[in-house]
Write a structure and sequence with these properties.
Strand content: under 5%
Distance between the termini: 34 Å
Order of helices and strands: HHHHH
Largest sheet: none
Radius of gyration: 15 Å
Helix content: over 70%
Number of strands: 0
Length: about 100
């Protein structure tokens, strides 16, 4: 059960920060800042915030720490967001057919 929670929470956190529209302004701000002034931090943030695989590694680390310290409410929020996204995408695909 812990592994499933870890996987779903990592996917949810990654989706929220890398793909969701709510964080789009933040991602665009980081990208603009990186283009205006290149430095290590700006390049790193721009890289991970625009790459699911790249951010997923760091999200897994964050989820591991949260799981280690038993802060499960946050993990359930991330896992729930991913499950919701998955189910809604599935329902949209079925409705289109």
């Amino acid at each position: 059960m812990e592994l499933l929670l870890f996987i779903l929470a990592t996917a949810g956190l990654t989706w929220i920060l890398v793909l969701s529209s709510i964080f789009r302004p933040f991602r665009e701000y980081i990208t603009r800042k990186n283009k205006a002034k290149k430095n290590v931090l700006n390049s790193f943030l721009d890289g991970i915030l625009n790459c699911e695989g790249c951010f997923g590694v760091w999200a897994g680390g964050v989820v591991y720490v949260l799981q280690y310290y038993k802060i499960e409410i946050v993990l359930y929020c991330f896992a729930g967001s991913f499950c919701s996204l998955f189910l809604m995408s599935l329902l949209k695909a079925v409705a289109r057919k």
